[in-house]
Design a protein that fits this description.
This protein has 12 helices and 21 strands. The chain is α+β, with helices and mostly antiparallel strands. The strands form 5 sheets. A 7-stranded antiparallel sheet has the order 18-17-14-15-16-13-19. It has a 5-stranded parallel sheet with strand order 7-3-2-11-21, with helices on one face. A hairpin with a 2-residue loop joins strand 14 and strand 15. Helix 1 runs parallel beside helix 6, helix 1 runs parallel beside helix 12 and helix 4 crosses helix 12. 47% of the residues are buried. Bound molecules: flavin-adenine dinucleotide (FAD). The site of flavin-adenine dinucleotide has 38 residues, from helix 1, helix 2, strand 8 and helix 12.
């Protein structure tokens, strides 16, 4: 069992790498611990898979908060637009949606994985080791020799190669197989690991009212995230309250701008379509209709039921005050709270529950053109295991595909 290249991990980075590494006839072994390839890929984009983004190169770079310069060469050689062409060429039709987000036309993430896997299976020179767990990378005198594995039956054996591409993913969603093994392999090989942390994740709030809002989803709201008093991110869309904080599409995007150990405040505009003046007029109309009711029973046209008690308490206006007794000042207070409902943020959720792991193998120790380790000959890294990450919009899969392409091409060129 001696191969020209071993790839640890059958995710998007590993699969793309396998296609490139085998392109010129080299023998390749893909070793995957699961019984299925691309387990995480199959659940991406809420089951629709946002493959990449149909944007220009500058926009692509601007959407990579984690080490964009390192990715420059990989993106130049296999860009977001090349990824679209690649999938179209292998028979997967794609559609572009709002914000340049590219999805399979079928809207099924399984079809993206299926298209990749069918290409891999067509190559006679790619061997698939499924249900096989890599426990160690073998290194001798600064050169890679192969890997030590355990198969499903518990047999331990070695698979040999002078090239090993480590595409084991990060620490997020460990049930998909990414449990951070690559960090241990890299550390053992002498690499430094930038502390893995959550990115694109729900955010925690210690505000007392949070628990009572659990499960409440707010659609068509806008948010503004401020860090240490400075507004860093605005968005419009859907937010969901969880048992410990906030989540939902706008929060996942905003979280890429969140800084731990800062004073972070989320301001929610519950009525973004209305200016304060218009909202005041609207409120006046609603309150006229309910003018004999108590304040706490007058907001049902403006707010979801679950939010009303929290809103009333936070407004500081006595809940049993009769509506026709509300002063102009109190009415302005209501408007102001509708436009600026704040949530104090205190942390990310655990990295395991994040969409993406930021941090990882220190890119200073990796050749950006080939993804080869500068410390160990024949050792390569690709995908989320590297300290590189992107915003939502298909940018993390773009990183996986582009770095997988770079590593696979480099191995194939060396052959
Ligand atoms: C719910 C969710 C939705 C997402 N949606 C999107 C999206 O729509 N668009 C987007 O761009 N990004 C999305 N992402 C992020 C994206 O899925 C990842 O960035 C991407 O999958 C990383 O690819 P990878 O190949 O580096 O790692 P992974 O996809 O994690 O693959 C790593 C593989 O290595 C295997 N492995 C690990 N250790 C070992 C070992 N020791 N031995 C053998 N095999 C091993 C694992 O089983 C796994 O199959 C999403 C992530 C999640 C969790």
């Amino acid at each position: 069992m001696i191969y020209d290249c071993i790839i640890i991990g059958g995710g998007p980075a590993g699969l793309l790498a396998s296609l490139k590494a085998s392109e010129k006839g080299g023998t390749v072994a893909v070793i995957e611990r699961n019984n299925i390839l691309g387990k995480k890929l199959r659940i991406t984009g809420k089951g629709r898979c946002n493959i990449t983004n149909d944007c220009d190169f500058d926009t692509l770079m601007a959407n990579i908060p984690g080490n964009p310069k390192f990715l420059f060469s990989a993106f130049k050689n296999f860009s977001n637009l090349d990824i679209i062409d690649f999938f179209n060429d292998i028979g997967l039709e794609t559609v572009t949606e709002r914000g340049g987000r590219v999805f399979p036309k079928s809207q099924k993430a399984g079809d993206v994985a299926g298209a990749l896997v069918s290409q891999v299976k067509k190559r006679n020179n790619i061997s698939l080791y499924m249900n096989t767990y890599v426990k160690d990378i073998l290194i001798e005198d600064g050169c890679v020799k192969g890997v030590a594995v355990n198969d499903k039956e518990g047999n331990s054996f070695e698979i040999l190669s002078q090239n090993v591409i480590c595409a084991t993913g990060g620490l997020s969603y460990p049930l998909t197989g990414s449990t951070g093994d690559g960090y241990n392999f890299a550390k053992k090989a002498g690499h430094t690991i930038i502390k893995p942390r959550a990115s694109l994740a729900a955010l925690i709030s210690n505000d007392k009212f949070i628990k009572s809002l659990m499960g409440l989803s707010l659609r068509n709201i806008s948010i503004s995230l401020s860090i240490n008093g400075k507004s860093v991110y605005d968005d419009f869309g859907e937010l969901v309250f969880t048992d410990s904080g906030v989540s939902g599409p706008v929060i996942l995007s905003a979280s890429a701008y969140y800084k731990k150990d800062s004073t972070a405040v989320l301001s929610i505009d519950l009525k973004p379509a209305l200016s304060e003046d218009k909202l005041y007029q609207r409120l006046q109309r609603d309150l006229e209709e309910f003018d004999r009711k108590m304040y706490c029973n007058s907001l049902e046209k403006l707010l979801p039921k679950k939010l009303i008690p929290v809103f009333v308490a936070r407004s500081g206006i006595p809940s049993n005050k009769q509506v026709n007794q509300l002063s102009r000042e109190e009415r302005m207070k209501i408007v102001s709270l509708l436009k600026n409902f704040t949530v104090n943020l205190s942390d990310f959720v655990d990295v395991k529950n994040a969409i993406v792991t930021a941090g990882g193998v220190n890119i200073k120790e990796i050749n950006p053109k080939t993804m080869q380790s500068k410390l160990i000959k024949g050792l390569y890294f690709a995908g989320e295991v590297l300290d590189a990450d992107g915003y939502t919009g298909g940018f993390n899969l773009t990183i996986a595909f582009s770095t997988g392409f770079a590593a696979g091409s480099a191995v194939s060129e060396n052959k």
